[in-house]
Structure to design on (255 residues):
């Protein structure tokens, strides 16, 4: 079982928060010694998920955790919103499907950029997406 | 730069800023009769689907305004991530750096000039 090394929370209430969130994730990944490609992947996934929480979820929180599992180090990110939720999760994870005006790559693309991906959504209550990238 | 427009993106843009760039750029193309646009993203450490779409849209809008867009300087880590994300920027011309991008624009312009000369 991985152990928790450190954690923190950031609000996702504005586009400025999204930029700060990306910078925080970049710094965390750098501190864990992620390669440049791995840093870029988790920052890009974070950007997609933060935007979803902001645009579709009406804003929310980003919780970050640094995990240790033996010699492995990981960054786990949880995006939580209290928005309308996703009625059909399978559909929402399909490439090209969008409920808004985007390209429909946010969720499905973010999933490809991380090692672990979990999505919990309750209609009328909100959505939580948890992703982990291991070094 | 003459008839070409060079846009260097230096900062981690928030979404509204990206949209404003799109507006400003299309207006500048129209106002100056620009034939080519070079977008230098060598300073960008991340391109997500929003920025990617903005770049593709600028390229499409510029084409309709009779200008060619060349995207230059994408970092390898950004390119790898962008393709894995699912975005391959179809229809957007790319070059390794500003110099090569400029060559591509000049080549396109010279070909267009040759065509015009033939029509006469």
């Amino acid at each position: 079982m991985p152990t928790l090394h450190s954690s923190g929370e950031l609000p996702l209430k504005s586009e400025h928060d999204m930029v700060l969130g990306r910078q925080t994730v970049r710094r965390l990944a750098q501190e864990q010694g992620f390669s440049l490609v791995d840093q870029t992947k988790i920052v890009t996934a974070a950007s997609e998920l933060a935007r979803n929480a902001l645009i579709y979820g009406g804003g929310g929180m980003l919780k970050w955790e640094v995990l240790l599992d033996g010699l492995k180090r990981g960054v786990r990110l949880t995006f939580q919103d209290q928005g309308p939720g996703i009625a059909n999760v399978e559909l929402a994870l399909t490439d090209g499907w969008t409920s808004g005006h985007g390209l429909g790559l946010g969720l499905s693309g973010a999933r490809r950029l991380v090692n672990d991906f979990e999505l919990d959504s309750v209609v009328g209550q909100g959505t939580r997406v948890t992703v982990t990238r291991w070094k | 730069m003459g008839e070409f427009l060079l846009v260097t993106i230096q900062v981690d843009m928030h979404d509204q800023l990206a949209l404003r760039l799109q507006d400003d750029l299309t207006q500048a193309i129209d106002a100056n009769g620009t034939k080519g646009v070079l977008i230098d993203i060598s300073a960008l450490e991340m391109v997500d689907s929003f920025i990617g779409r903005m770049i593709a849209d600028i390229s499409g809008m510029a084409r309709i305004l009779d200008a060619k867009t060349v995207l230059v300087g994408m970092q390898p880590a950004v390119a790898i991530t962008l393709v894995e994300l699912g975005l391959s920027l179809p229809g957007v011309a790319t070059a390794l750096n500003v110099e090569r991008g400029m060559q591509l624009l000049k080549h396109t312009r010279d070909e267009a000039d040759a065509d015009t000369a033939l029509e006469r």
Notes: Residues 26 and 62 of chain B are 7 Å apart (CA to CA). The helical segments of chain B are 15-32, 49-64, 76-85, 98-119. The domain at 4-119 of chain B is CATH 3.30.750.24 (Transcription Regulator spoIIAA).
